[in-house]
Prior knowledge:
Blueprint: H1 4-57, H2 65-75, H3 81-106, H4 110-126, H5 131-147, H6 155-176, H7 181-209, H8 212-224, H9 226-245, H10 253-285, H11 293-313, H12 319-336, H13 342-361, H14 366-377
Helix pairs in contact: 1-2, 1-6, 2-3, 2-6, 3-4, 3-5, 3-6, 4-5, 7-8, 7-9, 7-10, 7-11, 8-10, 9-10, 10-13, 11-12, 11-13, 12-13, 12-14, 13-14
Amino acid sequence: MPTSDSSGRRTGGVRARLRARAKGTGRDSYRRLQTYLIVAVQAGVAAALSWVVAAQVLGNPEPTFAPAAAVGTIAAALGNRTRRTVELIAGVVLGIAVCDLLILLIGTGAWQTGSIVFLAITAAAVVRGTGALMTQAGGTAVLIATLTPTVADLEVPRTINALVGGAVGLLVVLLIVPLNPLRTVRRVASPALDLFAREMTHSAEALALGDAKRAERVLERMRDAEQELGRLGEVVAAADEVVRYSPVRWRRRRTLAAYRRGVEHMDRAFRNSRGLVRRIGTALRDNEPVPPDLPAAIEHFGEAVRLLHREFLDEREPHRARERVLRAAREAGRACREEIGFSGTVAVSQLRTACNDLLRATGVGRNEARVMIREAAAGQR
């Protein structure tokens, strides 16, 4: 029968885990607020301005769709807003065209509305429209089909409102309230890349200590953190759009180019590193021999992630990160030439792949990166 002391320890452990989870959730919510607060500001400003333009400048008696289109332009995606605006307007025009034709042929009503929406979305799919275009075409068809009997001449104001809202939305995000691209990217990149580097250090420690459970915990944390790097890609896309089209942010183009170039390869490196950690756990559970060079290689790889982020922040060419990546590849090559089991060999292969991804993130070309990693692993660099 459990004693009161053991029961108290279990209760204390549960409370500690709950506190840690609540603290982690709070930190994540705060980071998201820091990242997306600018979107809320942009949406509010765009909604107000588009209403004023549609109602007071153009004299549209039904200006509701203008702020809706403006907010849709801003909120549909943090990046690719120019393309989203084109899709939004194209969806409106397509929905109006399909709806007008079908109302003339079959009239209005419940089954007519369903048929009109079905055909509008089908037409958007036929022209290879994305989800945004299909949603807008279907939404426009619903509004026209249901409001046409009570509101005359809705079609032209709806199209004008879409144009006004889309234009005002772009004006706000590119000129009036553009996000600070570097500040926004750094705010997301710092926790994401710090976590990546930290988990590599923890996985190296688990391997050196022969602790399979510790490796499993690292793998669980990396799975949970995948959305962090996904959010980094989204934010970099938005920042890149701003520095390309917003005159007030043009001077940041060169710095953003490094992040844009690196984020895709960094994401691949993270995914390959997760496979590496999975193999580490398997090797430890199977009691395979662990050459000391393998934990050292993983630790160097984690340090390369830290250095790359630091050199990006300092707007310097990432020479130190490249050197550390190649050092990780050399250590991994030595480990492979020592006594090592099957899972350990697979782990070395995955580490070399991740090193190649990280080297590509520093700006090295595909073929050159492959040669550099191969030579380093063979002890030639």
